[in-house]
Amino acid sequence: MNKKTAAMVLCTVMAAGVLTGCGGAEEKKDGKTTIKYATYSAGPDHLEDLDKMVAEFEKQNPDIKVETEVIGYDDYFTKLQTQASSKTLPDVFEMNYENFNTYAGNGVLLDLTELAEKDEEFSEDMLSGNSYEYFQKDGKLYGLTEKMSDVVMYYNKDLFDEAGLDYPTEDWTWKEELEAAQTLTKEGVYGTYAPVTYNELYKTVVQNGGALFDENGTPTLGSEENIEAFQWMLDKMLEYNVQPTPEQMSGKSPEDMFKNGEVAMIRTGSWMVTTFADTPFEWDIVQEPGNTQKAHHVFADAVVGSAAAKNKEAVWKFIKFMSTDSTAAEIRLDSSWDLPAVNDESVQEKYTSQEKPESREVIFDVMETGIMPPVVDHYSEVQNAINEELNRAIIGEQSGEEALQAAQKKVTDILK
Amino acid sequence: MYKSKKKIIFTFLFPSLLGLVVFKVGAMLYSLYISFTEWNLFGAPEFVGLKNYITIFRDPRFYESLKNTLLFIAGYLPVVLVLSMGIALLLNSKVKRVNIFRGLFFLPVITSWVAVSMIWKGLLNPEFGIINSIIEFFGGTGPAWLQDPAFVLPSVIMVSVWKDVGFLSIIFLGGLQGISSEYYEAAQIDSASKWQQFRKITLPLLSPTTFYALIITIINSFQVFDQIWIMTAGEPTADLVPVMVTEIYKNSFQYQKMGYATALSWILFAIIIGVTIFQNVMQKKWVHYE
After folding, report:
1. For B262, which of A260, A267, B35, B205 could close a Cys bridge (C-beta 3.0–4.6 Å)?
2. In this structure, what CATH number is given to the domain that contains residue A106?
3. Distance between CA atoms of A281 and A261, rounded to whole angstroms?
4. For the domain B56-286, what is the CATH code?
5. 3-state percent helix, strand, coil for chain B, nearest multiple of 5
6. Which residues of A touch B262 (CB under 8 A)?
């Protein structure tokens, strides 16, 4: 072999090495169908529970194999977006209510309507409440709600006892909360905490009879009720200082501060029940105080399929399993991994009979006054624009009223 | 054999050239096309002509991010160049164990920006951070470094200088060691002072190195991103001090406006190329090649 030929051979081998790196190879092992499932909610506390669910599914469907991929929530939708653009979405993936509209509207989700109708073992009332309707768009079914969660108020009983205060009740309004928080606040302890962000704002304004968007999705940020509600959020921090400012928090998470006994009341997700389980003090949960009316965050997560999925039957089977299977629901309950959406009375009983916290039923009760995030186009851009103005108010660059009016202008521009 | 030399060279270069063309040049040209479209990553890009560029030049946020980027460069560039040249002069001396110091100054360079930013975020913490504790010890009150928008850029400049000074020092050190000692010996015979030696020998002979350092520093600082992104994450200042690359990132991966984001990238590219060409023209006035 002369040098030239050798060079050509070497070169071809090297080029082939470069090229094979980017071509995805199809796999099919021993006649089994493999589907890929991506999730954000399993990490970091529920990895084993996810494995248990998958094992149960594979037992029920021996011809299907599920590969799971757990992605942190912060990167989840960025990753999904890139996968959607390169047409490499996983066959089945988790989707939340906030992002559902964008994905369904862009045609990347599998239309499940027919699969659900054909399936004799499935009926709408297998899902609790109206959760069957959450992930529909234009009369088509794109996903089944698998689980729900909400936000409640946690309080540190020991700190209330020390201050000689009665525990909060569901009749409390902002006024009672503020009075208690003022008594509770002392060296090293802040009375209360609620984030000052877009996500908190859209609920707080409803507690005061306002709304960030009207029924047509037109922004109504600068309304009187909204300004009053936002001012109250700011005042707790800047005027009364019963809530720590970002500077006073110095990088600690509010949940950690609650765990350390540095915050007496905190509005946070029902999923924190697991994280707070091992605190050295007594705590319980209660409905959030409202002003003119009650309102609570409710979050719904669904399992959806990719429009490009090859084996649509297998995709539907897995979606149905995650949403309505009793064993899957049981695994969820045993590990306090949110509320399963399956319509089963024993589920609620089992959930409330668990030990800590005492008033577990609150997590069900708040669903009655639950609101979902507003569905608007350009969701993350709108959210960022509002947060930016809220932040300018937090650091004192502008008043609450100026912030909401500036946000109104920006959001109108974005949606135009 | 010599006739086919070019062929041989090309054959061996082919694999990496292919990679370069497909993954670099190809991607760049594709992004130029994307910058004339509207594309939310779903579906196909829709051609809109110059619309993205027009929107950018009318967007006050673009000018704010450009202003912050230039402010960053104005604060960072002179400090890091002077400091690293000074350190290089010190490291060039024949002190015992000077290698230990060379290693120490280089340590931040090989540390990842994520780790550096996280550690400095702790050091700059207004309540528990060591920096404000030191200021308090001397009777002052430290600012809320990363919570007050006015102090975000100074903090980021400070950390960037700390991290990059080691890299530039090594470059300057290399330049200094390339200067023949004969010049200094001759100057000493003529009884020139240390300062005169520095002004008349070191600076001119170091100027090619300075030119190189200046170019890469400016290119890098136009692309400032990691440190400001990580250090302000979770703080109220997170969106209040935009620089050009944070805007590119947000528009592409958070707002799904790929067309707008790629147009921003091309504007940044044009600025950097423009500045670099300008520097190349200006170098005739001050760079001396032996």
Report:
1. B35
2. 3.40.190.10
3. 8
4. 1.10.3720.10
5. 75, 0, 25
6. none
